[in-house]
Amino acid sequence: MTLFLPRLTDLSDERQLEAMNNMLRGLGTMSFQLSFLDSDGGTANGRKPYNFDAIWVAYTSNGSADTEDTVAHSLGRVPAGMLVGLGDKTGTVYDSGTAWTVDNIFLKADVASLTVNLLVF
Q1: How are strands ordered across the β-sheet holding 104-109?
Q2: Is position 45 within any domain?
Q3: Which of 10, 51, 92, 103 is least surrounded by Cβ atoms within 10 Å, i.e. has the fewest?
Q4: What residues make up the domain containing 63?
Q5: What's the Cα-to-Cα distance from 100 to each of 21, 56, 82, 95, rounded to whole Å?
């Protein structure tokens, strides 16, 4: 499905309102095609590449805040990004600036010993 995203400036214009409604319907339709559950092939406890080519990775930052950690993954390609789950304490996980590889991603956390699950995709 190709989704055209027009520039909408005046929603009192019936044509622009209809374009917005069509865009939202299209986004809704596409969102129902994604899944994160094992039962239909999505990603839950491991790697299920049916809808979302991703893998869960457990990450615990080292004992010093803001220092680089090497985190292994088995995605089989250089990841495009990651989603960070809830940690065991308040903190932020971020890209260290080192280029990611087929085998590893390089992260930092702003607190020491933060444990969190990452969805690497």
Answers
A1: 69-72, 104-109, 93-95
A2: no
A3: 10
A4: 53-120
A5: 39, 16, 11, 9
Answer yes or no: is pLDDT of 106 > 90: yes
Mean predicted confidence (pLDDT) in 71-77: 92
In a domain, 57, yes or no: yes
pTM higher than 0.90, yes or no? no
Rounded to whole angstroms, the Cα distance separating 89 from 119 reads: 18
- Overall number of domains in the chain: 1
* Phi, psi (deg, nearest 5) at residue 48: -130, 100
Sequence-ordered list of residues with C-beta below 8 angstroms from that of 70, at least 6 positions apart, any chain: 104, 106
Give yes or no for a contact between 110 and 91, defined as CB atoms under 8 angstroms apart.
yes
